[in-house]
Write a structure and sequence with these properties.
The complex is a heterodimer of chains A (about 210) and B (about 270). In chain A, helix 1 packs across helix 7 and helix 7 packs antiparallel against helix 8. Helix content of chain A is about 70%, strand content about 0%. Chain A has one domain: 3 helical TM bundles of succinate and fumarate reductases. The longest helix of chain A has about 30 residues. Chain A starts with a helix and ends in a 5-residue tail after the last helix. Chain B is built from 9 helices and 7 strands. Chain B has a 5-stranded mixed sheet with strand order 2-1-5-3-4. Chain B has a two-stranded antiparallel ribbon with strand order 6-7. Classes of the chains: A mainly alpha (about 210), B alpha+beta (about 270). At the A-B interface, helix 1, helix 3 and helix 7 of A face helix 8 and helix 9 of B. The complex binds protoporphyrin IX containing FE and FE2/S2 (inorganic) cluster. The site of protoporphyrin IX containing FE (HEM) has 28 residues of chain A, from helix 1, helix 3, helix 5 and helix 7.
Amino acid sequence: MKKAVMAVSGIVMVLYLIAHMIGNLKVYTGRDSFNHYSEWIRTIGAPALPEQTALTIIRVVLLAAVVAHFWAAVSLWRQARRARPERYVTKKAVAQSYASRTMRWGGVIVLLFIVYHILDLTMGVVNPEGHDASPYDRLVASFSNPFITAFYVISLLLLGMHLRHGIWSATQTLGQSNRRRERTVNAFAIVFSTILIAGFLIVPFSVLFGLVD
Amino acid sequence: MTASMQSSVGNPADEKLGMNLTLRIWRQKDPSVKGKMVTYKVTDISPDMSFLEMLDVLNEQLIMQGDDPVAFDHDCREGICGMCGLMINGQAHGPQQTTTCQLHMRSFKDGDSIDIEPWRASPFPVIKDLAVDRRAFDRIIQAGGYISVPTGTAPEAHATPVPKADADAAFDAATCIGCGACVAACPNASSMLFTAAKVTHLGLLPQGQPERDDRVVNMVAQQDREGFGGCTNIGECSAACPKGISMETISRLNHDLLGALRAGARPKS
Ligand code: HEM
Ligand code: FES
């Protein structure tokens, strides 16, 4: 059941995103606190556990989720193309949301964004300050550049739309929706995605407007 | 009498009489050749005609000219058999949420141009022009859309009580006429709404219980085998469905499917 794989891997990534968004807000507690938070992630469970244990587990789970999700997406995409090799001359969309229409290309852009994001802020290889700078300084350096910020903003808006449709779709895929719940599920999807994305976006904007430096 | 003469009489009801329309229709001789859109004109079409009657007028015209009439499917012409089905201006069954046979020409204006295409999905190959082969749906039904009961006299109706809410939901799902508009409208060409309607209809009733798990896994396996696309819950199907089958049926199918797989049900190969 590739749709179930897609829904479960999507939900795993969403759970991570919630934690990630909240963690990001630590920039407002200052440079030292933020750098310390970054340090803490790497040393959870120390000294009982070796360094990076928790982080490695999270990375492995997320990587598996991304691979599974991407595999399911590509396979659905191909299945749909095979199912309609001859396109309509005229086709009108009646019900579909912009979010549902951008799942595939939007998803691909989000994937490219994730790769860039890791190279930028995790590994620092494409970061303006380089990988020797502290996490906090790397973050400020990236978001001081309007082009990088713009790329982040666009990707995050796409991710927000992806989740708006994804949450609804996953509820259907997992058989948890019904006529009574339909409106609630959709309202939740919109409110949740908006809050999550706003929580992410506030950080680059704060840097861009000099509230964090 | 021409339309202008009638309207000069001043009867407002006649004002729409005599619509002149441009039709662009998909013509395809047989499955092996490529089709194309061909333009036709029809004149003096009454707003009270059904869409199929308008096509009948065109076909009479074509036959008089010695041309090949346009092939299209229909049977009851009263919205219950599910045989008719055309993509009209990019919408399955046209601008109203009804069957093509129940769509009336009053939904169009004089001078309109109307694009008419067949359902497009590889499991629904074009037989000729606008007629497609929908036997893939029959095979999905054969895979599990039935109940096995001994025949004989009808059982006493009160012997098997059904909660009102379940009966209503099962009836709503049972109104599916298998026209294929869901597949036609779906950007993925998925047959999920059709299969979900059938699974929901039987799965909600006591008579459907013995085969419930096998039904859902086999019907889903068959729709994949037929080459339909996968459902991504976009909702075009339900919006195009002449019977308004809801997205809820899809959630119910998924619920039954995951439950059946967990209980060990596997599709017959
Ligand atoms: C790697 C790049 C990604 C691609 C190519 C991608 C693509 C897709 C596609 C094609 C769908 C199915 C469309 C549908 O059901 O309407 C989907 C569903 C979904 N996506 Fe993604 N996505 C990506 C990343 C993400 C991320 C980062 C998240 C969450 C943080 C996510 C969460 C979801 C959820 C929850 C669903 C709903 C699952 C379901 O339909 O049952 N996706 N994605
Ligand atoms: S011809 Fe029977 S439903 Fe239209």
